Amino acid sequence: MSDIIFHHYQTSPFSEKIRLIFGYKNISWKSVNIPAIMPKPDVVALTGGYRRTPVMQIGADIYCDTALIADVLERLFPTSSLYPANLEGSARILAQWADSTLFWSAIPYSFQPAGMQNVFGNMPPEHMQAFAADRAKFRGTVPRMSTAEATGQVREAVKRLENMLAGGDFLQGAQATIADFSVYHAIWFIRDVAKLGAILDPAPKLRAWSDRMAAFGHGQSSSLSSADALSIAREHKTEDLSARPFVDLHGIALGEQVNIFPSDYGIDPVQGTLVLADANELAVRRKDDRAGEVVVHFPRLGFQLKKVEA
User: What is the pTM of this model?
Assistant: First the structure.
């Protein structure tokens, strides 16, 4: 198997989710640091326009969205499963809540004035303005939440998570699941990036759980330049997808030109030739002058598929 190449930046919450899964599964990976805001020319060369962070690359296959990335890592590294058979359904549902509702409460809570000082450090004002403008466009139709509303929602979430931990070391008992990693990245951003962890003071079990999760670490990483990542994509063939079942829910055949884009925010479309549409995953083949021929993969959940009309 080609190396796992991970395109991320240090303070990205969703990147921390996957970095911790690398540690949980003891995975070695190549680290490509990318810009936090647009432009991201090397990322776009690989993805065709998808701009969310992180992105995982294996040879010339590009995987978007942490829900799909986690599934791919589970398939390649099944030891220390993220999806125990008796908990998979509830774990996935809780993870989806954390990646959406909890995340969109944690971010505005963290971006109150005290948190912003820690998130941005000594960033010049013009860079902060550029970040704010980028995120306003990125947020799309997701309404902005006030600090007061975010505080109330985070407090209630903390109380409920504390209650869930009454039965074991992890959210669903004795074993970590994908739900733990999805919840953790929001708590990590509040506590370790924005440094607003006082909101966890009424929840000692949640604090201990956070420490337990952090102890998984990030696996073994080594740095790789984005130029080298593009070279690797050019030099490799894509995964053979011919044996994967075709599930047609749109009346669109394999081989047709389509756009795939998120349903909620960061909705820049990726156009290419549809090469995979199974029960849980979509993928398009596309060519780029710098990246060569790549296949860009997406989960079905949270994304839309539309035919490109002539």
Answer: 0.95
Decide: helix, strand or coil at residue 229: helix
Q: Would you say 256 and 64 are in contact if contact means Cβ atoms under 8 Å apart?
A: no
Q: pLDDT, tens digit, for every residue of 10-49? A: 999 999 999 999 999 999 999 999 999 889 999 999 999 9
Which of helix, strand or coil describes residue 68? Answer: helix
The CA dihedral of 25, 46, 257, 308, to the nearest 10 degrees, is: 110
Give the model confidence (pLDDT) of 149-201 as tens digits: 999 999 999 999 999 999 899 999 999 999 999 999 999 999 999 999 999 99
Pairing relationship of beta strands 55-58 and 61-64 according to DSSP bridges: antiparallel
Instruction: Dump the DSSP string for 129-198.
Output: HHHHHHHHHHHTTSPPPPHHHHHHHHHHHHHHHHHHGGGSSBTTBSS--HHHHHHHHHHHIIIIIS--GG
**Helix then strand then coil, % of the chain, to nearest 5:** 45, 20, 35
Single-letter code of the amino acid located at 307: K
Residue 137 pLDDT: 76
Could you tell me if 67 and 99 are in contact, meaning their C-beta atoms sit under 8 angstroms apart?
yes
